[in-house]
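Revision sheet: structure tokens.
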Amino acid sequence: MHILHTFANNSSVPYLSWFAERARREGGVWYTFLILFPERPEMMDEMRDKGFTVIWIPFNDKKRKWGMIRALPLLWWHMLRIKPDIVHCNLFDDSLPGLIAAWFAGIRTRVLTRQDTGYHWMHARKWVLLDRWNARLATHVIAISNECMRYLIEKENIPASKVTMVHNGIPEDLFTNQDALAIKRLRERFGTHDRYPVIGTVARFIEWKGYRTIVASARSLVRQHPNAIFLFCGQGPQEAEVRQWVVDAQLQHHVVFTGWVERAEMPSFFGLLDIYLHAAEMEPFGLVYVEAMMNAVPVISTRTGAALDSIVDGTNGFLAHERTPQALARSIERSLASDLAIIGRAGRVTALAMFPFEVMWRGTMTLYRKALNDRK
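Predicted:
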């Protein structure tokens, strides 16, 4: 079974590396990757070492329309030359030209994973028509959460028979390997000694991640918990604005902008936290709060993505009933009145059952085999 993946705007994609490593060990699955990126992607070396091919197509996401138009004939030519059994597209910038190219190349099984579900609906309605066009060109659509699946069926009018739900997954050993020395170093770096509760958020500084709501809820919370500290771990275009919100709310003593934290140190970062806080709107999945759960950190989240699929409010985490500062603050208070250790352990059990990489691998391979059998 030869799978050709397209992916845009990423130099390296961890879960594609996990798929390639699993395929290399098991055999029976062959991968080729077409990567749309401004410069030579890191994946070229990663996949070469695993025995798979990465083809780089230069792509400037600052000029998306022209970039996709220029990429289209190259995608088509490579697909026509390679003749894979399945083309699998992932993000909008690679899916629009990739699915058109696959259709013209005569690839009969075209899979689309909607990693960015709902983004255009909330922030750029004029592009929703093209999301629907992508879904029409795809023969199979993967939704990565139940909320995502409902959105695709109800908002984009994709036939339910075309949509399969496959949760994302992560390898437990890579994301829970905490190190006591790293935890001590991070605690000193961020000044969390003798602070309680330590509440963390790991997300890009963009509007839909909910920092506006988090800052407002923090302002309310510190009135009752003057020793609380919030760690904001992220980068993004809204960072300066978020910093100003913190100043305006007089929270400089309570909010730390962590800057870059090495990927290898992220499990240890979770080891600092009493609570993980997530306030996104229509998060298609949300890998970071799955990481928090696997590290036994109690998660408080808005009712979205994987959190909505996995958290039983008050049992293995907490769900804010509304995406408002008041609702988020109430959920934090409820968590602090609970046994956080018990909640964290229950969340870990849930995450290890629902979101290991094995679940993602099995679900995806089952879809591929069914798709190929159906076309015979």
